[in-house]
Amino acid sequence: MKTNKKKIINDPVFGFINIRSELVFDLIEHPYFQRLRRIKQLGLSCMVYPGANHTRFEHALGALHLMRSALAILKLKGQEISDEEADAVSVAILLHDIGHGPFSHVLEYTLVPDVPHERISLLLMEELNRQFGGKLELAIRIFTDRYHRHFLHQLVSSQLDMDRLDYLSRDSFFSGVSEGVISAERIIKMLNVKNDELVVEYKGIYSVENFLIARRLMYWQVYLHKTVLSAEYLLINVLTRARELALAGTDLFATPVLKAFLQNGIVLDDFIFNRPIDGRDTLELFTQLDDNDIIASIKEWQNHPDIVLSYLARCIINRRLYKIKISKKPIPEQKISLLKEKICSHFNVCNEQLRYFLIADTISNSAYNKASNEKINVLFKNNKVSDIADASDINLSVFSETVRKYFICYPKELDIK
Fold first, then answer.
1. How many H helices and E strands in the chain?
2. Both 332 and 386 in a single domain?
3. Of 402, 389, 377, which is closest to residue 194 (Cα–Cα)?
4. Is the model's pTM score more than 0.85?
5. Is 52 among the domain residues?
6. Strand, helix or coil at 31?
7. C-alpha distance from residue 396 to each of 178, 364, 401 (Å)
8. pLDDT digits (tens, 9 = 90+) for 195-243
């Protein structure tokens, strides 16, 4: 029986999303992509914004929708884009986040340290290309910027790509943070191509300014919200402790796929060469890992005899998050030393275990990188192109400067002034 692969999906952010390509439909149906339904887009942000439970699955579909809209606009403006190129760049944006692990970024700091999700995304795209008989070849070339039409890559990855336009719109919608609202449709209608570079027509300057302001505010209010940071560092710490115990031979409950990642020191080469881990290839093992494995295991770790693991697990499950203080200046050593003394006394832990109870780090935010090769360029009526920072009549230097802050995180019962 022939399956109808022309589908319409009702999206709460952009309305109806049309799936017209059979290849796109088959990729959406693939288990690798369906896994994204079980990966939260914003990690543990839902502990601050209860509505922020959307997933990477919806984000990828939204980015696909915006890509199709952008291609239609560029074609109307005289850009020749073949059906093959349109399908390929649509596949590239659809799969751009397929390498994300549980809770989006946490995996990169714990279970597979120093293995960026972008690298895993590419490896999974190459595996899908093999499974689909080479149909993703052009999509991979666009994704890696090895295709001669550079503007197509910019639609997937740049400072004004379809990824950012979707996640700002979607994250502000589900978090309820209205400061993040942007006019994605207006920006897309103002897109054009000049000398194989993506540009924004001068009438879209104000929309891009709003985009940069919204991005900056979303980072401070959502992505780098202090309570979100506290929750995500707790999650990083509990997985780090679990991995430390598992590698030392401690018996630890975990779902089979999570146990494989905890007990084996999996590194980048394991992914590149797809080495077998516990009888399954590394990439295949990775595609079975999602948020559910983490939460199910942490629930059990609440009762583990290791006092560090059980305490961290209870903090996450019961939302007893660490106190966090953010400062524009480095945290005084005197305060850090005082906290260390209190932690050792209160929890009866050794110095080696202090790092699980006391987190000191920095955060930074830059809404626009003027030094980047992928600048946001504005096309004027006289056919000249200028960087948005120079074209704008407001001072955008604040958005290109990196703002760095310092923070310290520790159990609330040890609160000090």
1. 19, 11
2. no
3. 377
4. yes
5. yes
6. helix
7. 21, 17, 9
8. 999 999 999 999 999 999 999 999 999 999 999 999 999 999 999 999 9
